[in-house]
């Protein structure tokens, strides 16, 4: 009987632990002509505290559906430039090393 009570008490903790074990969708590698950029869900969701709905479904759906954009388009507020505009987050203009390693 004690074993059943102990298991019943631990089950909710196990479920909650599994639910919060992974933040976001991991790293997403975006390939482009000159290399790649690694997007970190952890730094955006865990580090900054953004909710998933801030980016999903718009401006981003899935990596398979994501359309390539140029830096000029980002500077005009497309893709990452929607938030990385110098107001909500650092601007994409002139901060190359923040994303391009």
Tell me about this structure.
By secondary structure, the protein is α+β, with helices and mostly antiparallel strands. It has one domain: Cytochrome C3 (Alpha-Beta Complex). The chain is built from four helices and two strands; from the N terminus they run αββααα. It has a two-stranded antiparallel sheet. A hairpin with a 2-residue loop joins β1 and β2. It is elongated and about 65 Å long.
Total separate domains: 1
Low-confidence stretches: 14-21
- Main sheet: strands, sense, barrel: 2 strands, antiparallel
CATH fold name, please? Cytochrome C3
Distance between the termini: 58 Å
Q: Structural class of the helices, strands and pairings?
A: alpha+beta
Strand fraction equals 5-15%
Helical content band:
25-40%
Gyration radius from CA atoms, angstroms: 19 Å
Number of helices: 4
Q: What's the overall geometry?
A: elongated
Strands, count: 2
Which CATH first-tier class would you pick? Alpha Beta
Strand order of the largest sheet: 1-2
Multimeric state of these chains?
single chain
* Average pLDDT figure: 79
Concise overview:
The protein has 101 residues and is of the alpha+beta class. It is 34% helix and 12% strand.
SSE inventory with pairings:
Elements: H1 2-19, E1 27-32, E2 35-40, H2 41-47, H3 71-75, H4 96-99
Antiparallel strand pairs: 1-2
Properties at a glance:
Cytochrome C3; two-stranded antiparallel sheet; 101 residues; alpha+beta
């Amino acid at each position: 009987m004690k074993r059943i009570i102990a298991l019943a008490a631990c089950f909710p903790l196990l479920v909650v632990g599994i639910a919060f074990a992974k933040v976001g969708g991991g790293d997403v590698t975006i390939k482009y002509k000159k290399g790649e950029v690694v997007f970190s869900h952890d730094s955006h969701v865990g580090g900054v505290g953004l909710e998933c709905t801030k980016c999903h479904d718009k401006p981003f759906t899935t990596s398979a559906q994501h359309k390539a954009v140029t830096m000029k388009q980002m500077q005009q507020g497309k893709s990452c430039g929607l938030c990385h505009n110098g107001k909500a987050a650092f601007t994409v203009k002139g901060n190359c090393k923040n994303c391009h390693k």
